[in-house]
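User: Sequence in, structure out. Go.
Assistant: Echoing your sequence, followed by the structure tokens.
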Amino acid sequence: MTEHYYTKNPGVEHDEKQVIFEALGLRFQCATDAGVFSRDGLDMGTRILLDALPELRGRALDLGCGWGAVGVVLGKRYPAAELVLTDVNERAAELAKRNLRANGVENARVVCGDGFEKVEGKFDLIALNPPIRAGKAVVYRLFEESKAHLGPDGALYVVIRKQQGAESAQRYLQTIFERVDRVARDKGYWVLQARPTTP
């Protein structure tokens, strides 16, 4: 059976590496490992997502955080915000904790669980680069759970490649959110903003 990065306990042998990247005008160094998403560094979709996000205020969630790229970048860029990172993959969650410490991010914490299993409270922003290979049922469940965890003025930001279902994802989001807009499009990726209420 083939394992994916959304496996709770990856069986693949560890093969850690250090990656260096720049995002939002800052430089980062993070540890990655085999068995986690985008182990070779910041992937294009996540970079496009980060560039499309508004200035962060309040409380934000890095949903499906992997080794912590979004949470680390946002936490460093917006030290007054409160960040929560979560991933079903225990190896990824541990890396995220280490990467927050290594980059001096003190306004964030990591929990390990499936979707919102270990996540509490409401958020002003939820960022999601969804696990497309897990299938639509999993991805759409994350959309639905996100709506339940957004504050009244909050928004979910999702990045998806057009060829991997961005259009159908937008149509589905429109069935559960009050307003859905495409706020960025670059290199085949769409960033969708979904709001539970119309501003």
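User: And one key feature?
Assistant: Residues 1-5 have pLDDT under 50 and may be disordered.
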